């Protein structure tokens, strides 16, 4: 076993995904320690993180903070200012990927397929025009939130105001997105390669927070059942979408596949969950990569940032 300097695993934090992050981080911490790696856990909080890191004596960081502060470029910027190598994507890619609106602008500019959408700022209230342009059903989403927090599927004009109010509890800027009827799938990315695609089946309206973390009847299908050609198409598109945003090392790209077999890009996760319900560990296992090996691979790819690698 090679010698490792002390690793700080960041988890918890102040976001709406705190509980998920705590579980993810503890799983990663245990996996590192089980391999003889000197690792400590830090419940990272704004304002105190530099002092927490200094007190820990860590020389490298495994970031398992989900959501705002940990996944949106803020922690990444802090770690770069402290000259600490860290796992995952850098400042720019993390900030962009956390912002669903700007991610979709990038994808559209690169000619990649993503559902039609409209930005709804705090003054927007022309519901009839919105329905005419996007159609029903539609998805209403806060632009900077994870774990499906604040997301609603809207089936009628009358449901729109309440759905937008719910999304605005998380962000004043909201998007309305055309709903794609079809199969919900996801592709993990690990060091430039796409992992086996997972198809998700839930009894709920969509794969929301409850389906992800609170119930046990969600089905995770590996093999996905898409067929070899379509699965390869999804994987190739995931790699392109990841690269367009500038993401690095590992993450997850979510899709809807319509009835014609067309994959549509939905969003990127730059710090996916590592819980018992999480998708990247499931996909890695299907590829023959056990959890400890997955964690070690992500850690091995941690590197100092010089601002050039993200360009």
UniProtKB/TrEMBL annotation:
It comes from the Bacteria. Its cofactor is Mg(2+); Mn(2+). It is an enzyme of class 6 (ligase). Keywords: ATP-binding, Cell shape, Cell wall biogenesis/degradation, Cytoplasm, Ligase, Nucleotide-binding, Peptidoglycan synthesis. Its main location: cytoplasm. Pfam families: Dala_Dala_lig_C (PF07478), Dala_Dala_lig_N (PF01820). Cell wall formation. Belongs to the D-alanine--D-alanine ligase family. This is D-alanine--D-alanine ligase.
């Amino acid at each position: 076993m090679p010698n490792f300097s002390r690793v700080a695993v960041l988890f918890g934090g102040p976001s709406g995904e705190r509980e998920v992050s705590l579980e993810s981080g503890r799983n990663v911490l245990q996996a590192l320690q089980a391999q003889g790696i000197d690792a400590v856990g830090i419940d990272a909080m704004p304002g105190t993180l530099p002092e927490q890191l200094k007190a820990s004596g860590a020389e490298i960081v495994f970031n398992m903070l989900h959501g705002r502060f940990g996944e949106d470029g803020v922690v990444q910027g802090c770690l770069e200012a402290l000259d600490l190598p860290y796992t995952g994507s850098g400042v720019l890619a993390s900030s962009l990927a956390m912002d669903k609106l700007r991610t979709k602008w990038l994808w559209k500019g690169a000619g990649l397929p993503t559902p039609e959408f409209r930005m709804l700022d705090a003054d927007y209230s022309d519901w009839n025009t919105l329905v005419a342009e996007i159609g029903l059903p539609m998805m209403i989403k806060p632009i900077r939130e994870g774990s499906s927090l604040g997301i609603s599927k809207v089936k009628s004009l009358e449901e729109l105001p309440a759905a937008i109010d719910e999304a605005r509890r998380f962000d004043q800027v909201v998007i309305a997105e055309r709903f794609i009827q079809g199969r919900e799938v996801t592709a993990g990315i690990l060091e430039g390669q796409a992992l086996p695609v997972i198809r998700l089946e839930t009894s709920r309206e969509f794969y929301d927070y409850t389906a992800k973390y609170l119930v046990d009847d969600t089905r995770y299908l590996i093999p996905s059942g898409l067929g070899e050609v379509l699965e390869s198409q999804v994987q190739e598109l995931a790699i392109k979408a990841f690269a367009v945003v500038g993401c690095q090392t590992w993450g997850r790209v979510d899709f809807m596949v319509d009835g014609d077999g067309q994959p549509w890009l939905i969003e990127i996760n730059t710090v996916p969950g590592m819980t018992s319900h999480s998708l990247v560990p499931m996909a890695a296992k299907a590829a023959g990569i056990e959890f400890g090996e997955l964690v070690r691979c992500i850690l091995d790819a941690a590197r100092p940032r010089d601002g050039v690698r993200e360009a």
